[in-house]
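Entry 14. Ran structure prediction on the chain below.
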Amino acid sequence: MTTDSFNLDFLSPEILRPEIQAFAEGFPTTLAHAGLTLLLLFLGAFIYSVLTPYKEIHQIREGNSAAAVAYGGVIIGLAVPLAASLAAATSWREILLWGGATIVLQLFVFRLVDFLLAGLPNRINEGETSAAVLLVAAKLAAALVLAAAISL
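Output, structure tokens:
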């Protein structure tokens, strides 16, 4: 066996294919942008839980399925426009700007939906899953519209 068979020069940056070089340069940025967006998602979900009159996490721990459905809808409802923001952004500053704006708008819309569908949050608090499903549908519809608006 010759020593040429263990030659690893093909891994040097000068010889790597352009796609591999692009991946090596872009992957850390991808991880940073995704991480920042996930941080915004957790922040938005936390703010929502603080703003609501009933404490979803506590209710979920006590076995309230309706609260779990409703809070899951909130998380997805925040994630949809954040994903659109991430797709439209070209820098971490844009992610912060658009992501922050989408969180504020989405939290406003969530509160508006809670107001317009008066009584549903209280029914969720009492464990009524059908109310949670309707509330989630309204919040997801608003999330999709907001995501589409960001994509323009």
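The radius of gyration is 22 Å. Will compare against last week's run tomorrow.
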